[in-house]
Design brief:
Pfam families: NrsF (PF06532). Keywords: Membrane, Transmembrane, Transmembrane helix. This is DUF1109 family protein. There is one protein chain. By secondary structure, the chain is an all-alpha fold. The chain contains ten helices and no strands. Helix 4 runs antiparallel to helix 9.
């Protein structure tokens, strides 16, 4: 094959292959719909959500989960694009953890030590560590399939950050149901659920995203 023919063939392949961002735009809605269906099947919106929405605890909880999902998504989109640096975007991950750290500090400062353990344990810990990964599973599957259209140089790390994004989305959905609003509860039990999704993303991404 002549050089000109090879260049044209490579260019044609590039035009046919969907970019990672486009693949995410196509597949992420399917993952979100799957997660929403799981929510409808297994959970319900907490009855006091409207009245509690502007309380500091709930603002911290949603501020953490939503900002985590957005920041992790921005990082992983950079990771699956060849030649694009993800480190500058990774700085955004300080935001969700900063929000949660401020919430925990405020909780410890405002509440007496005798209330710390009840807040941490809450009432739904065993459900949280199961339902956060369950809500995240369709989103993680959609992201990993979409990211196959990219070329991550570190597939395990890309899968982990995809898991972090999916975990943030799953935690956000579960937060609409969960009545445990203490930042201590969010730190421990939401953290365990999100960490589990992150670990699964790393394991699957190591194989699925390799090239």
């Amino acid at each position: 094959m002549r050089t000109d023919d090879l260049i044209r063939a490579m260019a044609e392949d590039e035009r046919r292959a969907p970019a990672p961002a486009r693949a995410v735009a196509l597949l992420l809605p399917a993952g979100l719909i799957g997660a929403a269906l799981l929510f409808v099947l297994f959970l319900r919106v907490r009855p006091d959500l409207a009245g509690a929405m502007m309380t500091p605890r709930l603002m911290v909880k949603f501020g953490f989960t939503v900002s985590l999902a957005i920041a992790a998504m921005a990082v992983v989109l950079a990771m699956v694009r060849p030649g694009q640096r993800s480190a500058p975007r990774a700085v955004a991950l300080f935001l969700p953890f900063g929000i949660l750290a401020l919430g925990v500090a405020g909780e410890l400062g405002a509440m007496g030590p005798d209330s710390w353990m009840p807040g941490l344990m809450g009432h739904n810990a065993r459900y949280c560590v199961v339902l956060v990964p369950l809500m995240a599973a369709p989103v993680l599957a959609a992201l990993l399939i979409a990211f196959r259209q990219g070329a991550p140089t570190r597939p395990a790390l890309a899968g982990a950050v995809a898991g972090l994004a999916a975990g943030g989305i799953g935690a956000t959905l579960y937060a609409f149901h969960c009545t445990d609003d203490s930042p201590l509860f969010v730190l421990v039990w939401y953290g365990i659920g999100i960490a589990a999704v992150t670990a699964v993303g790393a394991v699957i991404g190591r194989r699925l995203l390799a090239w």
